[in-house]
Specification:
Blueprint: H1 5-17, H2 29-40, H3 46-59, H4 63-76, E1 92-95, H5 108-117, E2 122-126, H6 138-144, H7 154-164, E3 166-170, H8 171-174, H9 176-179, H10 182-188, H11 193-200, E4 209-214, H12 217-229, E5 234-239, E6 253-258, E7 265-269, H13 286-297, H14 305-318, H15 325-337, H16 340-349
Protein name: Anthranilate phosphoribosyltransferase
GO cellular component, one term: cytosol
Keywords: Amino-acid biosynthesis, Aromatic amino acid biosynthesis, Glycosyltransferase, Transferase
Length: 350
């Protein structure tokens, strides 16, 4: 059997990362970009792709490899076009796990509505229910709130971003090559390194500030080093619930701020110091979550209200809307209780 040049090329890259503890080697940035491109374009065989994913997960990707994988995503993935005119605040892209949350109730949609309400353009990205967690995807949460993001083209997403301040990048619609690799996650039973890329990738065609969730400290270190290598503008890392960008109420919020030509800043925010300590709400069903979110949007007391204000206040401060966290918390509560957040949702559902 004669193998094509692409299969031979990929086989050599696979041999480098999959040769075992003592003999495997790291890929260069360009090699990692090539391997990712060959997977995305299905020029590697299914056996090769699955083997590469599990071998690379066991080896753990280096910063150079992460940068190369992101290069391939930039090359092949469609992006929401840059806004035609300048905005008061930079576009902020949130990177959260595509397999979503399965244990704790998210208030992330409220955070997006809050930021958009004060002029911070925000983009989030993801797909449908996905291995390995099979959490409730955000596209379904927004549909339950009356917003349909599935059918928008990239230009349509840009128009919605310009009009409402919130844009969504829907993987099956906007990056079908990456969507075709999703079944491998179920077949290998583990998140592949591509799941890490999704936290760091910006599907926006212009400059953007990036906020990425993480669980383990080594992941955050790699994020920061990759950020520096790729000359990105601003990276904020948060140790969020289940790796998301939602900050817990039952533990200290750990936030890292990386900016070009500035010293790295580490922030430890203790909910009890601001009167927001409490238990994080359990995620039981989409129906219950929708009711909880609608209660917040209506400005009524509920289980998730404190979490919504805590997160909203932090992000209003981090995005430069408020000079300090105390002001951010006050403004977040006002935006919710005075109906401004509800008005923003109405704008999205029209």
């Amino acid at each position: 059997m004669n193998l094509s040049s692409s299969l031979i090329q990929f086989r050599e890259l696979l041999k480098k990362v999959g040769s075992g503890t003592h003999t495997s080697k790291h890929l260069t940035r360009s090699e990692a970009a090539t391997a990712t491109r060959l997977m995305l374009e299905q020029e590697a065989t299914p056996a090769q792709i699955g083997a590469f994913m599990i071998a690379h997960r066991i080896k753990r990707p280096t910063v150079e490899e992460l940068a190369g994988m992101l290069d391939a995503y930039d090359q092949l993935g469609g992006k929401i076009p840059a806004l035609d005119s300048a905005t008061q605040y930079p576009v902020t892209v949130f990177g959260v796990p595509y397999d979503a949350r399965s244990r704790t109730a998210p208030v992330f949609p409220i955070t997006l509505l809050l930021l958009a309400s004060v002029g911070v353009p925000v983009i989030f990205h993801g797909g449908d229910s996905m291995p390995t967690k099979y959490g409730i995807p955000f596209v379904e949460i927004w549909e339950a709130l009356g917003v349909n993001y599935r059918s928008l083209s990239l230009s349509g997403s840009q128009q919605l971003l310009a009009k409402t301040g919130i844009g969504f990048y829907y993987l099956p619609q906007h990056f079908p090559q990456a969507q075709k690799l999703v079944p491998y996650r179920e077949e290998i039973g583990k998140r592949p390194p591509l799941a890490t890329i999704e936290l760091l990738w910006s599907p926006y065609g212009g400059e953007a500030n990036l906020i990425s969730g993480f669980v383990h400290p080594p992941t955050e270190d790699r994020f920061r080093e990759t950020f520096t290598l790729r000359n990105m503008k601003q990276l904020i890392t948060v140790k969020g619930l289940e790796g998301s960008c939602d900050l817990a109420r039952n533990r200290t919020a750990i936030i890292g701020i990386t900016q070009p030509e500035k010293d790295f800043q580490r922030r430890h925010l203790h909910p009890q110091h601001y009167g927001f300590a409490g238990q994080d709400v359990i995620l039981e069903s989409l129906t219950q979550l929708t009711t909880q979110l609608k209660t917040i949007i209506a400005g009524k007391p509920g289980e998730l209200m404190s979490a919504a204000i805590w997160n909203g206040g932090i992000y209003l401060w981090l995005c430069g809307v408020c000079p300090d966290l105390e002001t951010g918390l006050t403004q977040a509560e006002e935006l919710i209780t005075t109906g401004i957040v509800a008005d923003k949702l109405k704008q999205l559902t029209v």
